[in-house]
């Protein structure tokens, strides 16, 4: 088995050093990637250079976030963190920049990466750092009547604010009109005669929490603006007030269609922070569980998507299979949906003796369910007319928007972290990565169906080669020592027991960014530890946040009914989007 | 216009719903055969049932609940499980899931409600025709659950009245079915 910790990405920063000379204040690592801290004056130049220089070509901005250093240092309270990624070479770089509280602003990089648009809005909303020249710097997760910036360390977690009514969003629509004035000029209807239609948040196809406002010329969408945050449940603030293992249940509720993937993504980050190596059996069990979750996630996404297109029968076919997987997973984890299965360095429990048998039974049934559905849709004229060529996006645009995972692969760009930067021994399994042709709704749906089959292959191989041995890491923080042989037998055992009960997990001071390939794409956790028992900061990089930010580009110019079809095919899960 | 902090909740949880009367007990729907007291009716041999209009209406309400799912989060996925074939809400006569509040009389709030969502929930509730019932599915909707923080509404009963609370995070589909059946029994018993 390969090691569990991510191989550090080595990037030669000499060229950058020569270019930015006086601007670099500090060079360090943000494990597993190198990190440079620059002066604010040099920030824009650094990022631009890293993006454009052929040696670096960081074509994707993974994440923008802020660390509030109130309890970490005397001055320069806010530290901005930019995570960059070159998808071809898998090199990653982090760039940091500190600003004072009373002068908290940096230049916007919206023109470099489109992903920055929402990333910066979130940083502004949560921390109050301003981004100069941002086209639309308003709150994104919290509502417009909110006062203060909740992720600041001095904001009381319990201080809520009532919201009296929803925003009209007309200001954002006006911005969009200004960006593309030719559309309204070419429309069949005069400017005053177009129709403005509100879709969501309480709409069956908008997953209950997504809101779109569209301006229609007949049935064609001219402009679309979105509002998110209706399910912002304060994951990050809650994580800061809970011990490391207590955060696991919160991660369930990020992408609740595939809870275990999130558990694993989170504990992997904490393990990397603590330097815990998990044993091969644990890795294999995590792979099996994650792949079963991937299957469940794709099932529910495709089922709902096809229902949105008007085909109800598929829903029953696919959901039945999901129920069967639920039953098997429930046998091990004790819960159907919110499993909370992974623990730092461990699992809640080993698999049950009959688990392997049951999973094999499931694997035998999967093709039947998928084929039944495919028979109904694959050659169905209505289905094809409504999905092929609808909601297209090119690979370049997709990367600029921060697409990862299946939606990126559907555009024809092959990138899967399980292959590109394998973890948990994914390199030992034989599986293929389905890619699409043109990144439309059809490709996304079909890639999902194909991935279900590929995941089943992985599970089968993992079952065949499931190693024996312990499922818990040999590390004092991974589990309570055995009472008879350790706690009561010697003083080390007693101290170990005391430490873990009283203080929980205390990673060393430091930070880490760790990623896994979840059904929606790269789920990243950026955790900062101050040496205490709770994370100082725990930022999620939610894949669908970036997917959804591209939504207007996908649907403008399409018919209004396609808005629904495209939305379903992106698999936006609100828990992960809004956290 | 949500409630301001500290303002009294208009309908306290568990309060008696205004207008609820015990019609069912006084006028059982099914008159026992042959004992209607009316010789003409008895002559028909039980093919006719005599009842009160109120009891008939109660019976109708009980068996034609049209739910609107106000699903926002993880609980909504379990609600999907409840209506799909394995658990099958339609066995209990409440499967006509309607997404328009104007065509529904039972709102099942499944998922976390944030302050931002508050005004929307209130508006949707107001759009439903009376009589209307609310089931709060899961701890988030009932009390905020483990999201005790700056963005989550600590229970939907701060803005709309709730008839049944279901515990669980998420509740199992059986628990949802139980809440629906309980509501139906109440409708039969009290007519509202
Ligand atoms: S009660 Fe639990 S499962 Fe339901 S919405 Fe809340 S967190 Fe999700």
Automatic annotation (TrEMBL), chain B:
Record's keyword terms, sorted: 4Fe-4S, Cell membrane, Iron, Iron-sulfur, Membrane, Metal-binding, NAD, Oxidoreductase, Quinone, Translocase, Transport, Ubiquinone
Cofactor binding mode and count: Binds 1 [4Fe-4S] cluster.
Predominant location category: membrane
Residue sites binding [4Fe-4S] cluster per the record: 74-75, 140, 169
Top-rank lineage group of the source organism: Bacteria
Subcellular location: Cell membrane
Record-level GO cellular component terms: plasma membrane; respiratory chain complex I
Keyword flag Membrane: yes
Documented EC number(s): 7.1.1.-
SUPFAM superfamilies xrefs: HydA/Nqo6-like
Molecular function GO terms recorded: 4 iron, 4 sulfur cluster binding; iron ion binding; NADH dehydrogenase (quinone) (non-electrogenic) activity; NADH dehydrogenase (ubiquinone) activity; quinone binding
Annotated membrane topology: Peripheral membrane protein
Cofactors named for this entry: [4Fe-4S] cluster
A Pfam family reported for this protein in Swiss-Prot or TrEMBL: Oxidored_q6
Catalyzed reactions: a quinone + NADH + 5 H(+)(in) = a quinol + NAD(+) + 4 H(+)(out)
Coiled coil: none
The NADH:ubiquinone oxidoreductase-like 20kDa subunit domain, residue ranges: 74-183
Enzyme class: translocase
One BP term from GO: aerobic respiration
Purpose of the protein: NDH-1 shuttles electrons from NADH, via FMN and iron-sulfur (Fe-S) centers, to quinones in the respiratory chain. The immediate electron acceptor for the enzyme in this species is believed to be ubiquinone. Couples the redox reaction to proton translocation (for every two electrons transferred, four hydrogen ions are translocated across the cytoplasmic membrane), and thus conserves the redox energy in a proton gradient.
Similarity-based family: Belongs to the complex I 20 kDa subunit family.
Subunit structure and binding partners: NDH-1 is composed of 14 different subunits. Subunits NuoB, C, D, E, F, and G constitute the peripheral sector of the complex.
Name of the featured protein: NADH-quinone oxidoreductase subunit B
Organism the protein comes from: Eiseniibacteriota bacterium
Lineage of origin: Bacteria, Candidatus Eiseniibacteriota
